[in-house]
Amino acid sequence: MLSDIGPLELLVIAALLVILVTPSVIAYRRKVERLWLVVLVNVIAGPTGLLWFVALYMAMTMSTRSADNMLPADDAV
Fold first, then answer.
1. d(CA 52, CA 21)
2. Residue 70 maps to a domain
3. Where are the transmembrane segments (predicted)?
């Protein structure tokens, strides 16, 4: 069965996987506070389609970590 997959099918599968993980990547790049929650919703329920939009909304609207929280312990004043 896998031997019947051609280059076009592989390209479609790769594109779908990139689209599927987009909310998690956006949340990671934005440095949202609850990245684990976005990833959890995206991985478990993202393939259903409806909850993929929920994960995307969460990734784009959740609050981000402030610069104060990202300082190493040695640099704290």
1. 9
2. no
3. 6-28, 35-60
In a domain, 77, yes or no: no
DSSP symbol at 52: H
Q: Please give the model's pTM, rounded to 2 decimal places.
A: 0.75
| Structural domain total, the chain | 1
Averaged over successive runs of 10 residues, the pLDDT of the chain (77 residues) comes to 81 93 95 94 86 92 74 54
- Enter the tokens of residue 32: 């949202």
All residues at 6 or more sequence positions from 39 whose CB lies less than 8 Å from its CB, including other chains: 24, 27
Residue 72, domain member (yes or no) = no
Q: What is the DSSP string of 5-35?
A: --HHHHHHHHHHHHHHHHHHHHHHHHTBTTH
Residue with tokens 């609850």: 34
Domain of residue 11 covers 2-64
